[in-house]
Amino acid sequence: MGSSTAIRELQRDLENKANDLSKHQKDIAKNHQVRKKYTIQLGENELVLKELDLLNDDANVYKLIGPVLVKQDLAEANANVRKRIDYISAELKRLDGTLQDLEEKQNSKKDAVCGFPFSCLIQFIIEVPCHMPQYGTRGLFSL
Amino acid sequence: MASSKGGAASPAVLRASEMEKMSVEQLKALKEQIDLEVNLLQDSLNNIKTATGRLETTATSLHDLSLRPQGKKMLVPLTASLYVPGTLDDADKVLVDIGTGYFVEKTMNEGKDYCERKINLLKSNFEQLIEVCFQSIFVLRMLRNCLHLEIVAQDT
Fold this sequence. Notes:
Chain A is mainly alpha-helical. Chain A has helices at residues 2-54, 74-131, 136-141, and strands at residues 61-65, 68-72. In chain A, strands 1-2 form a two-stranded antiparallel ribbon. Chain B has three helices and four strands. Chain B has a two-stranded antiparallel sheet with strand order 1-2. Chain B has a two-stranded antiparallel ribbon with strand order 3-4. Chain B is rod-shaped, with a radius of gyration of 25 Å. Chains A and B meet through helix 1, strand 1 and helix 2 of A and strand 3 and strand 4 of B. Chain B: This is PREFOLDIN SUBUNIT 5.
């Protein structure tokens, strides 16, 4: 009976590892989503900046705040957009860093899970002959 | 905005010889990935198309507006079904939404110019994207062939 509890334990261990892996994969997917959002925002902001750069100095610029349009200085608007682009770029860089980190972790977890059945099998091979001698080690390997 | 969506690294340079070395599982996984990519690209292309269409209607209505004389009577839509009478005061100044909540006051000609520029930008993006899309579809076709051959080879 000792072998069946050991196998059950191994199973539980494998489940834990698999859960861990799927959690990581979810994290990575979330990271991708956030990054996509930021990339789109960055693109839009860059378009706005390009447009603002094309304007004359005396152009009237308004900012939509809630339901009202507030008149803004061109220089101020320019600075705001630039600041936002800087912020989004920094945020994207940070996300890149965490993504790399997460991917490394995921790979190590994947190895742990993929390497698992083999170690389980070895355990099985060691345990099995005492219960089912008719299979033996050689028979299992040819399975 | 749409140009940034094609960022996924496309394995479009895969050779047929490399595909032949792959197992059926690898081919299937790759096919799935490229399928997703093609779907994404087609979504982006559709988005660009609708955006171009909107800009084109804007450009025509601007042109329309510029032809009306000052003081022209018109009906202004307050909601989709409620219109109130009004008169055209100044058709030479237009307010253009340039994104992220910023509006710029432009003259009529500048406004038209803006629409034209945006349409051209979108069109060039569209062409770039369609090229990538064609490449992906080409790879997809090669993958399908390879997969088919492998499966036939396995059956015999």
